[in-house]
């Protein structure tokens, strides 16, 4: 039976009930939004401008949203369920730096915002934001011994670390007093310039693909659903967080009726990992533990049903918005989907084909029903209704184990 459904709040066309469709993806929109997001600095703690951009894009699609006191954005995608039971979580904040000290040589000592190595910041162009909004300064992160003509082989033997680098400001400054005169202070944010580039072959090279690429995918997914006139079985929300890189992204803002939540973040492309830049990727486990058995496999099955290229992977030194949400007490199934990123938190690279694949996967997932139609609509239930051995069977270990005689015992 066909019926009318909604996305955001406006009535849409007729679709066959319960059957997700593979909707067209606007690649030009995806790339345009991605580049604009990447060119909008947003280190954790200084994210208002990027949230303004995201809100304007969602408003263009006619989807209702609001923002929390601190600036987390919540967009609601109306479906058949009367309350929000599903959430996509993606973060708009990125790694960056903060001024720790104005040095006597007129340069800045900085500390990292978020977890990243100074090794990959050496040579980075930066923007320093002062409290006077119209006064920003450009600069470069340099090792303390940055001239081979002066230090010779010492440039190769200097250690790696944030105490081994400094920021050179592109102004005629030679002392800490000169920096103060510019209005630069301890606590000012230092954004690593993204310098995005899309190659002829579809590779995207840039800092901060984590998680600007995921955010672009989510916005493109919303547009794809609206443009195609399809709706949702389950009312969902898009939660755009602003503190994931420092560990407290999805701590609030989620619906009290949530049954499923899926974080959209980078998938690690490196030796020993299965994730790819050209595919969608499903994280089965990270450093905080396995993701939901049923939801993860349900999403994988959707990818197979719609011929969406997908990989499954396990990540060691990794944490997403799922972790703070679960730690905050959200009682919902949780999964992780990712776009492949080579050299994450370093000189990052992904591929447009992988972003398109992830957009397709999110589109069919949002159209699908909950993992368990009846059970997942309630916060609790009886053992008789619990989907246990019927969906996750195990065989008991055999009782006839062989017992070896102790050494020296009589036969």
TrEMBL record:
The keyword Hydrolase applies. The keyword Zinc does not apply. InterPro entries: Peptidase_M42, Peptidase_M42_aminopept, Peptidase_M42_dom2, Peptidase_M42_hydrolase. CDD domains: M42_glucanase_like. It holds the Pfam family Peptidase_M42. Keywords: Aminopeptidase, Hydrolase, Metal-binding, Protease. GO terms for molecular function: aminopeptidase activity; metal ion binding. SUPFAM superfamilies: Aminopeptidase/glucanase lid domain (SSF101821), Zn-dependent exopeptidases (SSF53187). Belongs to the peptidase M42 family. This is Peptidase M42 family hydrolase. It comes from Kineococcus xinjiangensis.
